[in-house]
Amino acid sequence: MTVAAESVPARVAVIILNWNGEKFLRAYLPSVVRHTPSAIADVFVADNGSTDGSVDLLKRDFPNVRTILFSENHGFAEGYNLAIKEVAPHYKYSVLLNSDVEVKDDWLTPMFNFMESHPEAGAVQPKILSLTEPEKFEYAGAAGGFLDRNGYPYCRGRIFGTVETDCGQYDSPIQVDWASGAALMVDNSFYLSVGGLDKAFFAHMEEIDLCWRMRLAGRQLWAVPSGAVYHLGGGSLPASNPRKTYLNFRNNLLMLRKNLPRNGRTRRLVWRRLLDTLAWAKFMACLDFGNARAVVRAHRDFSRMQAVYDTDPRVDLLSGRPNILLEYYLLRHDRFSDF
Question: Quick one: CA torsion of 75, 303, 159, 288, rounded to 10 degrees?
C-alpha cells in the first residue's frame, strides 16, 4: 500500500474507493477535483487492487490526486477502514465518497463547517440527489436516513421504492439515525475508535451499522442539506441483483444482532425473519428464483455468523419508532412528511 505524495495541512481527506471503476473515475472524478476546495481538503483515490486501467488513468490524467494502492480487493468496508487508517494521522476528517458521485459548486464546506462547530457530531451527509433525475432525491440516503422499529431503513425523501422530488422541503439540517455511505463525512479518530466499518459485511448496510454504533457511543449523526451531491446509484450492483439482495438481507440481520440489547433481541429477530420469509414468498410468486435463493442464503449465513457478535448495548435505539410496513403499505403514507 502506497500513498502518493505527502499530506499538506488540509483538514479533510476526500476518499474515493475504486475497484475496476475506470469508467466512473473518468466520468466523475473531474467534478470532484474541480469543486473540492483545496484550502480545506485533498482528494484521494484508494484503489482496491483494480485490474482495469484505473491506476494508469490516475497517473496519466490526474497527477494531483493522491493515491492509496491496495494489492487486492478488500471490499467497501475494509477498503475504507484501511484508507482512513492511512490518512488519519494527517487529516481530522474524511469523506467516504462513492466513485459514481458527481459534485457541483462548493459541496464540501457546509459539512466541514458543521462538523467544526458541532463536536457532538460523529458523521454528517449532504443532500443526495439523483444524477439521472437531478430534480429527485437519490435512493441511497436522500436527505438523511432513519430506521423503523423492525430495522428497515428509510430516508427523508425516500420510503421504500417511492422517491420524492426535491422542492426544498427537507433543506433544514436534521439529526438522523444514519448517514449515507455515498457521501459520508466522518471524524477520523472517532471512526477508528468505534471500529470503523464492519469488514464482515463486505458491502451494503455497513454504514448504517457504523452509524448505529456511533450513536450508541454517544455521538450524533446529521444531514446537512445545504451541500448537495449527485449519485448515479447501482454503479457496482443494480438493485435487482441477487448478490445485492443477499448482502442487504444478511447484513440487516447482522446489524440487528449486533446493536439491539440482548433483552428482547431474539423476539425482534424472529419477527424480522418472518417478514423476510414474506419477501421470499413474493420473489417466488414472481418467479424471481435468483433473489429467492439469495434470501435463503442470507438467512443461512446469518445463522452461521451471528455468534461472533456477543454484544449487549444498554439502549434500544429502535424503541418507539414507526412501523414503516404499516405506514407505507396499509396507511399509504409514502412521503417522509406524512408521518
Answer: 90
